[in-house]
User: Fold this.
Amino acid sequence: MLVYDTIVVGGGAAGFFAAIKVAELKPNSSVLILEKTSKLLAKVEISGGSRCNVTNACFDNKELAANYPRGSKELLGCFYRFNPTDTIQWFEAKGVQLKAEADLRMFPISDSSQTIINCFLNEIDRLGIEISTQTKVESIEPQQDGFTLHLDRDEKVACKTLLIATGGHTKKEHFHYLAPLHHKIENPVPSLFTFNLPKHPICALSGVSVIDVEITLPEHNERFRGPFLITHWGLSGPAVLKLSAFAARKLHDVGYRYDIEVDFLPHLTADEIFASLKQQKSGKANVKKKPFESIPQRLWEYLLNNSGLRSDEKWADCQNNKLQDLAHQLHKSQFEANGKTTYKDEFVTCGGISRKEIDFRTMESKLHPNLFFAGEVIDIDGITGGFNFQAAWTCGSIAAETIASRI
Assistant:
């Protein structure tokens, strides 16, 4: 049976990053990465439309931590040790330049995830780290001086320090290989999903976007403001995805049936909207000419129709009760959601190893010495925008530093 200084279970972002850093800090150590599939760095490849959203240009640690619906408190201290500035410097030292876009998402200047993948693979090769793909860990057995991993094909390997970085799992039973470690698993449920409105008329406006709306889940006391997109199945865009993350467990518990309110003019009150509409009555234009620049024309005509106003009707002829109804729809359009659609292939879950059982100063298990966790396998998840990768780099870095000190 082969024995390694360190075994990393999971060939994704957190696992690769930690393995590389361990080998950098302890050049003569033996490090093995185990990946159950044939694909390494799968989520890195597809992230950001295959451009790889490496991190976010949010350089205030408190603001950064606020982007994690689960784990913000624990990650705050971690970010003082490894944050987006450190991520940028780490990749630059490997010859990979990153750029920030207007929404603060950061990508390699090549706009290709393959740049990040090649960076990792080159470092793995340079440092002599072993990789075994299509190798499934069936169970993990703690020993007095480390761990024995029981693999498929009746094989075994052992290590002194062990890092679990398998990413998120969609079902609790997928954590079965960790059962001998007796860690509490928070039930995994989807995060980052769109709101489905089956057969709702607004879906006919698929492709229409609004740059700034406020979306509220009134029954769950959750709201978020930001860009908004109508799709052929319902509501999407950054505001929806962020709201879905913060309300992930609540919406799961109600079977993804819930009420939604959308404020298309969040910078104005209902009374201010109504006053603006009444001012239009002094002109000669028809109602098709919209007074609010931020409202797309197709959406405007949809709201007019819902208020009983014809697009060829003159503003001067509009009844105040219909204008009041239009103002209400602009301020608080109401929808009933039924179901969700996961955001492309970038599936994110909340749930995983309980944060209470991990020492975030070291990323070490509180139950087993020399057992570490990093990445989405922990009950930590961020909103869209590079935050999940940043958590992977941060946790992987801290785990690697501790592991290197134990070898």
DSSP finds twelve helices and 21 strands in the chain. Residues 387-406 form the longest helix (20 residues).
